[in-house]
Amino acid sequence: MDDRQYVHATAALIAAYFLASVVSRRFDPFAPVWLFLVGYIQVYVLQAYSYREWAISVRGVDLVTTANQRALWALAWFLAVYHLGGGRLVARRLPTPPRKWSNLAVGLLSPVLIVWGLYCTGILGGGSASGELGSPEDALLRSFPYVLMVGAVMLIVTGRRISAPQPIYLAAGLFFAFSYMAIWMFNGKRSPALIGVLATVCAYYSTHMKRPSWGVLTATAFVGALVVAVAIGWRIDVTHDRSFIGFIEFMGDFDVSKILDSLDITDTAEQTSYEIISYETKEYGGYLLMLDTVPMKSDYDGGANYLRMFSTFIPRILWPTKPLYGRKQWVDAWIAGSELERDEDFTSPAIGILGATQLNGGAPATVLVLAVLALLLRSSYEYFRLHADSPWVQFFWSITFFNAWFMIVGDDPMTWFYFNWSFASLPAIVILWFVNKGPDVAWSPSAATTAAAG
């Protein structure tokens, strides 16, 4: 097989998996495997196809063929473990979630999160998107804009509960969710805007233990692609004033065909803005760089980056010399293998999941890491299905399941945990667990357990 046939085979495997799920009536849009596959298509199908000529000219046809071959067998391995790895067994052995839901706790906690999130976005005076400099403490305080979405989902779940609906809570939650999407489109950030769409749809439907129709799913996919394209387009736009009025004018002039640019199907947006020098800053380009560089020109990191799952919770005031585990090996690889000149301060592009596992330890690390991720995603999803009537689980899943996409497109599969979820989402999840597990505080029971998915 040549390099293109492996890309075609990867696309065919995903298509066959999707069709089998639909025909067998097991398709669930809130299963994390679908966002995992969306990311996989974006990087290892669309980017691999779109940037093939560049890739071969820079890295050679043999390496490109090896890269595409690995993308195919890695996906097949992931899906095998996802279905055969014992996720259901793990889910049944996890602690039972709370069955009650405290309106009082939501009423106290959600306003704090929403105000904090608005401050971080710049709405309430110089947030993270404004570019204003302040003290380190202030910069830390402004580092968690996603708490706005956490507060919004909390309100949506409260408002949509079958046993005790609260229309005012629902209206407020939807308002702040849509505000979050709009703010981050204006700030030119694609990922937060897309997260807002996914979390809102999941919270709205999972609270009634239902799934969107195919029409709603199609509309959701279009809106998701649209907010990404608008955010990217606005970020690179130079023809409109950088103001609210300018943004409205930009929206009025927006060409819907630009959605193809954001999906890496075309690159006309970039070509009209500046001359393309290299695609190595794309996830697929970073993957090829790691495959070409590690370990021949630079060392493996041995999975050191995953130590950040623990070190991230230790404040620097207690550990002033705390290292950023895995950072040195990542930089060394870029310096050794990049087409361009890189230095020790280089920070930007992601290398995707397969680039990360190559840096971890090559093919053996790819096998190990993908197996762990498949088990993690399947176990958490089965927990969601097993306790589908729990408001706490509905809240938890709505602000978590989309991270399957980040596992593909980030610098490593757990960056979503290090840099956002662990501090923006986890505290609220833990607080609501203990509040709703404890003595009754203005709560009413969730829907009947018998309605949960089997």
TrEMBL record:
The chain crosses the membrane at residues 6-23, 30-51, 71-91, 103-127, 139-157, 169-186, 214-234, 362-380, 392-410, 416-435. It comes from the Bacteria. Keywords: Membrane, Transmembrane, Transmembrane helix. Signal peptide: none annotated. The keyword Transmembrane helix applies. This is Oligosaccharide repeat unit polymerase. It comes from Paludisphaera borealis. The lineage of its organism: Bacteria, Pseudomonadati, Planctomycetota, Planctomycetia, Isosphaerales.
